[in-house]
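Sanity check

After download, print the first record. It should look like this:
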Amino acid sequence: MKPQRLHPLELEVMKVVWKLTRATVNDVLDNIDRKLAYTTVATTMKSLEKKGFLSHQVDGRTFVYQPLIKETEITHTMLNDLLERLFDNSAEKLVNTLLEVRQTSVDEHNRLQALINSYQPEEEKTDD
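Expected structure tokens:
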């Protein structure tokens, strides 16, 4: 099954669960960056479970959720989707746009340059 995209609130919730490795609705509420209703988070977590992103165990009367999918799987899927939809599958267009819209410090620029310099692209396959 190809991982689905997550809506912004679903992604926020999943980031908290990935960070904590196990989380209740209250744990998410305590660790999320904005004020949300308990029922909003509970509904979102139930929806994520239904979609196959979370599972839960019952501890007393509390549902304790854990991720069923790794953060990197979602990151890669969503980035590939963005690359296809907005940048015509061009990493060069993506990086160029990123550098146009986001100021980088000299240190960050040097780290990015080092990453690019050390990256070894896969050999293109040719038919012999």
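If your output differs, re-run the checksum step. Summary of this record's structure: Residues 78 and 99 are 20 Å apart (CA to CA).
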